[in-house]
Amino acid sequence: NPYAVDFNNRKFMKKIYSDLCDISITEKAMQLKIALTEMQAFIDKLCFDYPIALGCATEIKVGDLLKLYNVSVDARADNMAERLTNYIQLSSRLLGNKVFVLVNLRSYLMDSEILKIHETVQYENVALLLVESSFSADSSNMSVVIIDKDRCVINLKAPEKTLTPDQGDGF
Prior knowledge:
The protein is an alpha+beta fold. Helix content is 44%, strand content 11%. It starts with 9 loop residues before the first helix and ends in a 14-residue tail after the last strand.
């Protein structure tokens, strides 16, 4: 269901948080140390000034800060095709997914939008398998295979060359 695409699912967020933690430790180490020291001093002062004795954790982790500030993927998109394109790019880049299977996409999108998604998967060097219940003649640059009710395989358009995901052209 293209409407249920979740940009902030656990796998994405785990990878993003891990990457941000690595960046903060390697590339932004000095900024991180200053920020954490200032935050710790503020919290210590706040607790000290309170009329009841309070304590707090002395070590703050970057991952905890990311969760505190609710760091998440900005998934704004103008239309469903753009949303799916963004999801494919994110999934490919973060998780290394190389094959995407979309069922009855023509029920949700026009052929021109599907072709834009196809261009994206070619650019991202991933394969796209569209499983449809009907055929559209406007499927240029795509290999079209029909499997009828008798399980006969009919190749309507064969690609000019055999393509694999690691060749960079998609399917």
